[in-house]
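Q: How would the structure tokens look for this protein?
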Amino acid sequence: MIIDAHTHIYPDAVAGRAIKTILKNAGGLVEAHTNGTYDHLMSSMDRAGIDYSIVLPVATNPGQGRGILQWIKELQNSSGRMIFFGSVHPYDPDYKVLIKETNELGIQGLKFHPSYQGFPGDSKEAYRVYEEALKYDLILYFHAGNDTSLPGCDFSGIVRISNILQDFPGSKIVLAHGGGEDEWEKILELYGDKKCYYDLAFVLEKMKTNEYARELFNRNEDRFFFGTDSPWREQKKYVSLIKDSEVLNQEQKDKLFFKNILKLVKIPGCMPG
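A: Here is the predicted structure in token form.
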């Protein structure tokens, strides 16, 4: 079984525009491997042999949370192969209602990208949202580390992430991009031993060759997930990088592909890892 813990799609009507905007902001540092729609992600999963993908939307302004929730309602039953997380903007005055409705829909977590959303990840406004989400035992899934498409913005920086981990011990927290792209030496010092989870989205190639990233993985082998960041990385290529690895044994590959994520995310018909 293979579960991609980190993917993105957009409503068909805006997918093309969303992809173009992100590519422009990234300044040529990324390319898109799907057109950002539900159907294209499903086709990509089929080509890669991926059984399930977790879809992580991001409410980039306070008014988007309601629309994202409605969109998930429309797609949630289209296929059991996509598991949708929600997203709430900390400046949304209706955040409590949205979180309650998110939980009632059976959505298991919320995605936060503080840099894109425009709020410091460790701000009091953010903390009240995290606290409300944790009342429902929701997973908090963070973009972790600075974003190359947003130079100079530290809202998702690893010091702020470290503060969140310190202030919410024992919570179900996932850090995307291996905890923070290219900052693994500092991450080992700040939160390498914290009981959070990590995904490999977008950074798998780098983590394979970085000694500090490998040490982070060695310390947290039971807490790393396979993830791609599709459409910004090709799912089939990422699956091959794990399958063909001569460094990882089969048990480690199974942990990455499905065993670890199933400790955290419930998928009908799948036993916990």
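The longest strand covers residues 3-7.

The mean pLDDT is 96.

Upvote if useful.
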